[in-house]
Amino acid sequence: GQQLNQSPQSMFIQEGEDVSMNCTSSSIFNTWLWYKQDPGEGPVLLIALYKAGELTSNGRLTAQFGITRKDSFLNISASIPSDVGIYFCAGQFSAAGNKLTFGGGTRVLVKP
Amino acid sequence: DADVTQTPRNRITKTGKRIMLECSQTKGHDRMYWYRQDPGLGLRLIYYSFDVKDINKGEISDGYSVSRQAQAKFSLSLESAIPNQTALYFCATSDKSGGAYNEQFFGPGTRLTVL
Q: What is the DSSP letter of A94?
């Protein structure tokens, strides 16, 4: 089946830093999505990307749909403590209906 | 009130027991999904249903069964639980796809531990 490799698996942030994470796939997708999961809750959609090359922002978040349709990245600028959580990328291929393939997640933690 | 609810939120059971996890939604969506989450593996699709009469296996359906009792309810059963089914389980819903991606809305999850 399709595989999504998400990196890094975890990272520490200091308030004010910019952070980035990315996903690569062995197959192409028509849609790339980025979700965030807070402790004790389900994932919530942050950004959806529908077109190769598309760059989309949502507040301090910016995500891009790679030209090859096999990768995407998410940047968080000027991080704040509430940015901690697990971030997931997910891809969808339209021929597969609305099914999503998820990456393994990036756990964002605050530097002690 | 939450749009997608899951019960129970936590469950500890023993190997061999039958377990049912329930999901209800008030969003009026036709499509419902069950995922499991394991550390480092993200979410993997177990079963999905595009309407009451349409049930489909996902990536990891072995050892699980589902029932779509109504548009708003989708239950996941483990007929004979085993320890490697210990995981966090999520239900999700979405509207019918109109071509572009239709957002999936997730419930709060059920943490299941099989001893």
A: G
Does A12 lie at the interface with B, CB-CB under 8 angstroms? no
Edge-first strand order for the sheet with A19-25 is A4-7, A19-25, A71-76, A61-65, A55-58
In the numeric block, the tokens 């698996």 are attached to A9
Gap between the Cα atoms of B28 and A10, Å rounded: 36
Report which of B79, B107, B85, B102 is spatially closest to residue B23, judged by C-alpha positions: B107
A59: left (phi over 0), alpha (psi -120 to 50) or beta: left
Judged by a CB distance cut-off of 8 A, whether residue A41 touches chain B is yes
Each residue's pLDDT expressed in tens, for chain A with a length of 112 residues: 557 999 999 999 999 999 999 999 998 999 999 999 998 899 999 999 999 999 999 999 999 999 999 999 999 999 999 999 999 999 988 766 668 899 999 999 988 7
Q: Which of these, A53, A15, A17, lies nearest to A32 by C-alpha position?
A: A53
Contact of A103 with chain B, judged by CB distance below 8 Å, is answered with yes
CA-wise closest residue to B21 among B74, B57, B92, B82: B74
Residue in A42, A98, A103 nearest the CB of B107 = A42
**Cβ-based contacts of A40 with chain B (< 8 Å):** 108-109
**Residue A106 at interface with chain B, using a CB cutoff of 8 Å:** no
